[in-house]
Amino acid sequence: MKFISTRGAAPVLSFDEVVLTGLASDGGLYVPEVLPQISESTWRQWQSLPYDALAIEVMWPFVEGSMPRATFERMVREAYGSFRHSAVAPSKQLTHDVWLLELFHGPTLAFKDFALQLLGRLLDYFLAERGERGVVMGATSGDTGSAAIEGARHSEHLDVVILHPYQRVSEVQRRQMTTVLSDNVHNVAVEGNFDDCQAIVKASFMDQAFVAPNRLLAVNSINLARIMAQTVYYIYAGLRLGALDRPMAFSVPSANFGDVYGGFMARQMGFPIAHFTVATNANDALVRGLRGDLSRKPLLKTLSPSMDIVVSSNFERLLFDLHQRDGQMLAKVMADFQTGAVVLNDSVVQSARALFSAHAVDDAKTCETIRTVFEETGELLDPHTATAVDALQVTPAEMTKVVLATAHPAKFAEAVIQAGFSEVPLPTDMADLMHREERYTVLPNDLAQVQQFVQSVMG
Ligand SMILES: *Cc1c(COP(=O)(O)O)cnc(C)c1O
User: Fold this and answer.
1) Domains parsed from the chain with CATH numbers
2) Cβ-proximal residues to 381 (8 Å cutoff; 6+ apart), any chain
3) Using alpha carbons only, how large is the chain's radius of gyration in Å?
4) CA 242–ligand 1 middle distance (angstroms)
């Protein structure tokens, strides 16, 4: 499979190159040039496959040519073998026609494990093939950092440097990162806020004199391999819950649009998904974007912090398709957005509306939904998942509805307590998290000192 940029002016890349590259040189994002078309009879044949076997079938057309099939099979089995639930992505019935797709059984209790367990292994393999070492550098306000660390802790060719804002992430989230004591894992607590951390990472990636010698690698959701891994659970759940025989809608707690774009890609491969509902918290960039209004609003701090964003990076991938894959035209739209607000044209908005609905949910409604669902079903939702349950009110009623449960409630105690419940215990294998040894380095909010630290890691 070949990969092209959404802005039409960057080199066409192979899979291994795209995994190692991140952002395209023209500022765009990589997408598959052509997706494989899977026939209905093949979907039916795949209906009986367990998660890892299905994952291999779905992802192999992307990966083919970059490694032997047996190597990829081993990688996928290892990646999903680390999950706590033998079904990997089990579905639970919530009401007569609503199902909860539980994506929080991975090592760090959030859906990001699905992509990062695999991405860490892919990066390690491609670096080994090239005889190189690389360093993953990222900033986190919570879920991404710990998932990236867990995905790379056993890598031999990869160091991980994750910046988090000093004393500004929850204790569970910090400890999920800082108690991983592998030699290649380096946590930096920056004396600043999340934006400061992100600014340091951004500046480092723009600094070619720093990127090239250190082989800097990005694992944020612009990496196409993450989206690829996220196509699989839509298909897995869809096959189990009858998507081949009746219309099915997925409701997705969304921020950077990476998760829901995975579902969109599954649909582009011919998997019958009838509708997507995009749920946001009060940071509603996607709700406005799907109405044709690309604009920025100040960041709000909410009870669903993993959805607190101003600009939704992967939305550009959908816009590319909605503009008939015309990279030149999209480059112009994105250039205009760089300097101000953009109003998308009517035909683009209409085609988006045919497939997507969107709904923003504030903190009060999030807590109310956590309470109502518990009263009606006994399920305690995390706050991100609760937004997607509330957003079902804009989902076509006649469809079978699947809500993506993106995190375990134990990870977000603040919301659970505000909703009126007592704190949820961690899974038993993590019960001693609060007593494990931690290791991290506190650094000032200063680009030069952080870069010096990264260089010392690379030795
Ligand atoms: C990252 C995250 C999201 C948002 O996913 P996107 O791919 O950015 O849209 C939602 N819920 C949780 C728990 C997350 O960690």
Assistant:
1) 87-103+231-418 (3.40.50.1100)
2) 369, 370, 373, 374, 389, 405, 409
3) 21
4) 25
Catalytic-labelled residue, pool 112, 297, 365, 401:
112
By most ligand atoms within 8 Å of CB, the mutation choice from 406, 408, 416 for ligand 1 is 406
Exposed/middle/buried for 228, CB within 10 Å: 0-12, 13-18, 19+?
buried
How much distance in Å is there from the Cα of 112 to the middle of ligand 1?
7
Number of helices (H), then strands (E), belonging to the chain: the values are 19, 15
The amino acid present at 439, given as its one-letter code, is R
Distance from C-alpha of 402 to C-alpha of 392, rounded to nearest angstrom: 9
Closest to 289 (Cα-Cα) out of 362, 358, 339: 358
For ligand 1, whether the C-beta of 307 sits within 6 Å is yes
- pLDDT score at 316: 97
Query: Is the shortest distance between the CB of 105 and ligand 1 below 6 Å?
Result: no
> Please, which residues have CB within 8 angstroms of residue 45's CB and are 6 or more apart in sequence?
none
110 lines ligand 1 (CB under 6 A): yes
DSSP 221-262: TTSHHHHHHHHHHHHHHHHHHTTTTS-EEEEEE-SSSHHHHH
What whole-number distance in Å separates Cα of residue 193 and Cα of residue 162? 14
Cα gap 256→310, rounded to integer Å: 9
Which positions ≥6 away from 435 have C-beta within 8 Å? none
Q: What global pTM score does this model have?
A: 0.96
The lowest-confidence range among 192-201, 261-270, 322-331, 341-350 is 192-201
Please state, in angstroms and rounded to a whole number, the distance separating the CA atoms of residues 228 and 88: 17
Grouping H, G, I as helix, E, B as strand and the rest as coil, residue 186 is: strand
| Overall size of the chain counted in residues | 459
Cβ of 363 less than 6 Å from ligand 1: no
- Measured in whole angstroms, how far is the alpha carbon of residue 182 from the centre of its chain? 24
| Pocket of ligand 1 contains residue 112 by CB under 6 Å | yes
What is the CA(228)–ligand 1 centre distance, in A?
A: 15
Ligand 1 centre from 405 Cα, in Å?
A: 10
Residue 22 pLDDT level (bands cut at 50, 70, 90) = confident
For residue 222, the model assigns a pLDDT of 87
**Which residue, among 296, 282, 307, has the nearest Cα to 337 in the 3D structure?**
296
Quickly tell me which residue has 């704190």 as its tokens: 423
Q: What are phi and psi of 118, to 5 degrees?
A: -80, -45
Residue nearest to atom 14 of ligand 1 (CA): 306
Burial of 412 (0-12, 13-18, 19+ CB in 10 A): buried
